[in-house]
Amino acid sequence: MTAPAQTKANNTSKSLSVEDLSWSVAGRRVLDNISFGHQSGEVLGVIGPNGAGKSSLLRCLYSYLKPQQGSIQLFDKALNQYAPSELAQTLAVVLQHNQVESDANLLQWLALGRTPYRSWRASDQAQEMAIIEPLMARLDIGHLAQQSMSSLSGGERQRALIARALVQQPKLLLLDEPSNHLDIGHQIQIMQMIRSLSIGTIACLHDLNLASAYCDRLLILNQGKVHAIGTPAEVLTRDTLRHVFGVNAQISDSSPPYLKYCFPQENRAEDGGREHA
Ligand SMILES: Nc1ncnc2c1ncn2[C@@H]1O[C@H](COP(=O)(O)OP(=O)(O)OP(=O)(O)O)[C@@H](O)[C@H]1O
User: Fold this and answer.
1) Does domain 14-237 correspond to CATH entry 3.40.50.300?
2) Nearest of 204, 187, 14, 191 to residue 94 by alpha carbon
3) pLDDT category, 210, cuts 50, 70, 90?
4) Which position among 88, 151, 188, 227 has the lowest Cβ density within 10 Å, counted as fewest Cβ atoms?
5) 69 forms bridges with which residues in the sheet?
């Protein structure tokens, strides 16, 4: 696998700061006292087993869910102080489930990503195309420009969604499973592209090898709590894999570390002590 670029975090300035965040639903605490910072420009991967709270955390970060406790500062301003259009110029989100209800063709649909920047005057189409066309080329969807959104394959639609998020020209990108629906070639292409962006990214990822290869730091969530946060080499340990994910794996000494799973798994979670109540 391609070695990652050097760290993207350009300095110690924070784009996002989360303090003591908790969110409960139906009497259950799904997110429990979460605190972390995101450095400007860095790629932060959020990993953890199914149900750990990754998507819920992301939903809090783009203001869809309102945590009952804690604070979120986005570029030094409280998230709940952002007006909708200001937030759309600051954050772009790609969700895990990528259904798109639209009869528009890809190009028309991508142009809607410029809505937060449009005034009452006619939009500047030439300027919008200068933003959209290079992104279509970069995401390998230029040949689909005239095709209707409803006819795209799952992988094409996923790349279209990422392009649409970037058309917004956000300062921070939130991605929930960006490699969903993608073949391995496009998974690597997307992760490499994310690394090459000048803006920072927070991405929920299930593939720990992709996360290790392409993220500056990883935040491991387990049962709604931060289990660990640090570089892939710091947090991807055999103990964590066994206790959080319930798997046995060999971890290379290389940087970033590469995981090799042991098959068959003789000591799965039930025997290996996953941190379940
Ligand atoms: N609106 C809700 N009502 C009830 N339970 C919820 C709600 N939203 C999330 N949950 C529960 O909170 C837990 C965390 O869900 P979440 O989708 O955040 O996990 P995740 O880490 O993203 O999981 P996955 O890897 O499977 O996508 C799950 O047990 C889920 O069922």
Assistant:
1) yes
2) 204
3) very high
4) 151
5) 22
Q: State pLDDT tens for residues 108-160.
A: 999 988 887 776 555 678 888 999 999 999 999 999 999 999 999 888 988 99
Q: Which pTM value belongs to this model?
A: 0.89
Mutate to test the pocket of ligand 1, among 24, 28, 29, 54 (most ligand atoms within 8 A of CB): 54
ipTM above 0.95, yes or no: yes
Residue 271: what pLDDT? 43
Answer whether 201 contacts ligand 1 (Cβ < 6 A): no
Q: Is 130 in the pocket of ligand 1 (CB under 6 A)?
A: no
Segments making up each domain of the chain, as ranges: 14-237
Mutation choice for ligand 1 from 28, 30, 66, CB with most ligand atoms inside 8 A: 30
Q: Which atom of ligand 1 is nearest to the CA of 58?
A: 18
CA of residue 50 to ligand 1 center, whole Å? 8
How would residue 2 be classed by pLDDT, with cut points 50, 70 and 90?
A: very low
The separation between CA 37 and the C-alpha centre of its own chain, rounded to angstroms, equals 15
